[in-house]
Design a protein that fits this description.
The structure holds two protein chains of two kinds. Chain A is of the alpha+beta class. Chain A contains two helices and six strands; from the N terminus they run αβαβββββ. Chain B has a single domain, classed as Rossmann fold. In chain B, strands 4-3-5-2-6-7-8 form a seven-stranded parallel beta sheet, with helices on both faces. The longest helix of chain B is centred in the C-terminal third of the chain and has 17 residues. Classes of the chains: A alpha+beta, B alpha/beta. At the A-B interface, helix 1 and strand 6 of A face strand 1 and helix 6 of B. Strand 6 of chain A pairs antiparallel with strand 1 of chain B.
């Protein structure tokens, strides 16, 4: 249940980027959330909806992209994607794998409203 | 009115990671091993810390940072063992963050060997927050059931060591330590596993050995 504090960090980033680009409204936010990140997408959505009122992202939509767990195997050099919690290389079965994606919580893109054409 | 899309790629945990990295540097430079204990409420974190205080006494010096939603109770239990302890009450927050540890770090005496951090009892959120520790230990007690690693994989995935606690209750509860360990190892190969009873003291020496080995390693890398 730390989704609200994560969303608070999202708004810090939105304000910083809006200032940088000289705009006052954010219209969309795309988050990349790893399957093993430990956060619940639905809770991020509710937190975003309650947090955005009265902010520069009042009317913004939130898009959450779930990032699958991707492993890299140092033994056979293969890359594999796992749907369960068996984190072994799909190609050679090695357990010495490195998790390269699937644990992140990242603001990937934002859409800003610009004046003029 | 028109819009433009910009790529941001900003990690939401970046600030916490930076603060944690600073704490890790600070602890290492003082030759202190930071250990983060993570588990559900009631799995025996504080009892294990009391047992560790007894075992390390006279040989090593330790300090403890306690995290809870409310009350000073855990820090008081540790202080009764003659060990310096600080209580962080989060007032509702479900995990400790590096910033909270950073605020206390200045008060922690430099002449210690181990800084144990007892996280808020919760097997979910604390897993996402690096506190600047060098070892992360997940505790799982026998009454909780041996099926928990697969249900809460993030905690086990982020850990260096698994401590199966309350082994004295094994005759009374359906818990198979071998199954619990196998499940955790399928999530995190290389996880070190210890089975203990902090009340009776079984298995605690092996755990102490593991901490001392990690401390020696940290200090040899410091030279």
């Amino acid at each position: 249940m730390h989704e609200l504090s994560l969303i608070a960090s999202v708004f810090d980033i939105l304000e910083e980027k809006a200032r940088e680009h000289g705009v006052s409204r954010v219209t969309a936010v795309v988050l990349h959330v790893g399957r093993m990140s430990g956060v619940v997408p639905e809770l991020l959505e509710s937190a975003f909806d309650s947090y955005k009122k009265g902010t520069l992202a009042e009317g913004a939509r939130l898009e959450i992209v779930i990032v699958p767990v991707k492993l890299r195997c140092p033994d056979c050099g293969g890359a594999s994607v796992r749907e369960d919690t068996d984190f072994s290389c799909a190609a050679c079965g090695s357990r010495r794998v490195e998790i390269v994606e699937g644990r992140e919580i990242v603001v990937e893109k934002i859409e800003l409203e610009t004046d003029g054409a | 009115m028109s819009t433009k899309t910009i790529r941001v790629q900003a990690d939401l945990l970046a600030t916490n990671k930076q603060v944690a990295a600073g704490i890790r540097r600070e602890l290492r430079s003082q030759g202190i091993l930071g250990v983060n204990f993570l588990s559900s409420p009631g799995s025996g974190k504080t009892t294990l810390l009391e047992t560790l205080a007894d075992r390390l006494k006279g040989r090593y010096r330790m300090a403890v940072i306690e995290g809870d939603i409310e009350t000073e109770r855990d820090a008081e239990r540790i202080r009764r063992k003659g060990v310096p302890a600080w209580q962080i009450t989060t007032g509702g927050a479900c995990h400790l963050e590096a910033r909270m540890i950073g605020k206390i770090l200045g008060e922690v005496p430099a002449a210690i060997d181990f800084l144990f951090i007892e996280n808020v009892g919760n097997l979910v959120c604390p897993a996402s927050y690096d506190l600047g520790e060098d070892l992360r230990c997940v505790l799982l007690s026998s009454p909780e059931g041996d099926d928990k690693p697969a249900k809460y994989p993030q905690a086990f995935l982020s850990a260096d060591c698994l401590i199966l606690t309350k082994m004295d209750l094994i005759p009374h509860v359906p818990f198979d330590p071998v199954r619990a360990a196998a499940e955790a190892l399928s999530i995190k190969p290389g996880l070190r596993v210890f089975t203990i009873s902090a009340l009776r003291g079984d298995g605690v020496d092996a755990l102490v050995g593991y901490f001392v080995e990690a401390l020696d390693l940290l200090r040899s890398g410091r030279a």
